[in-house]
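Hi W., the zinc ion complex you wanted:
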Amino acid sequence: MHSHLIKDLLNLEGVIVKKVSHSDEDVVIMLETKAKPQICPACGAKTGRIHDYRMQYVKDLPLQEKRCFLGLRKRRYICSCGKRFLEKYPFLARYQQRTVRLTAYIAAELHSLQSVQAVAERTNISSATVNRILDTISFDRSSLGNALSIDEFKGNADRQKFQCILTDPRKHKILDILPSRESAHLSQYFKQIPRQERLKVQYFSCDMCRPYTDLAKAYFPAAKIVIDRYHFTRQVFWALENVRKDLQKSMSVSLRKYYKRSRSLITKRYASLDAEQKKACDIMLLYNDDLRRAHRLKERFLAIFSQQKFSAKRTAFLDWIEEAHLSGIRHFEKCAATFSNWSHEILNAFRYDFISNGPTEGFNNKIKVLKRVSFGIRRFDRFRKRILLTTN
Ligand SMILES: [Zn+2]
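Structure:
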């Protein structure tokens, strides 16, 4: 193959390919440039006088699944002012041991759900260097839209068990990841956002958690507080599951195992079961009054969402609280008490049903994958960046 064809294949500017050698693991491509007059960095004069040569090997993109090195025979020029300097290559940044495009490739790889170690191995670069490249990528907070949602997840980064995730639930976008869920920290963070920007937030979505709603009132005074439907609905499922678990305690081992294994028949929406499953579910419920009542409460709760008008949802929700309150089942009485305390914010979820943390739940799964492939992430700043890179 002609040298210029190899050059095209390499896609590197201004080089002459002198030699290509392969070993089992490496490809080494020897390159040089055409000599041309240089501008002296010290005095600005032109010079073409070559002083000597220096060999430098730099890493490039993997080629044919082998590590690829470029061997550069660099000229050292000397100027009449006495200054000696090395020629520059357009594809090589100063003081770098790798090509610009390899750095760009690594930065792009960090956008996908894989560990830093995996990226390092594939690109023939140490993990420390990949992390340094990650450190150079900056990620500013995205500006706020008219809806803001806050949720927490167990990240175990920087000795803090829980981290916070801020999303725009209408644009389905992660806005930022915060290192702590503590009020003092969150307060500090929100304070830094210009008041004008905070006033744009019309809806603030969160879990039933007073510190969050207190923050919302302080920093987002124009926002309606909406409890995310996932967070309040799961209380109903927890109550139902607790009734089943209580009941199982008095069962024989085999029956207990059956109830545990078949619990999805009870938790799934009855209407979504096929005929055989419905029969099996009926039999499970026949066994105990509390479980039957708990199942009915769960079904009635889910039915609220199917109502068309907000007024109907509101009535159904308040009726449900009443019924749960009088159910005589402590798990549902507790649920009714919680819902009473938060009825205004939960009703907002029914009224403004376009606000939902659904997307956050999807993000949480990605975060889980990222934590798993990275064997946990100790440094929060890198963890945050990886999450933002892989999700946005
Ligand atoms: Zn000079």
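Residues 38 and 47 are 5 Å apart (CA to CA).

W.
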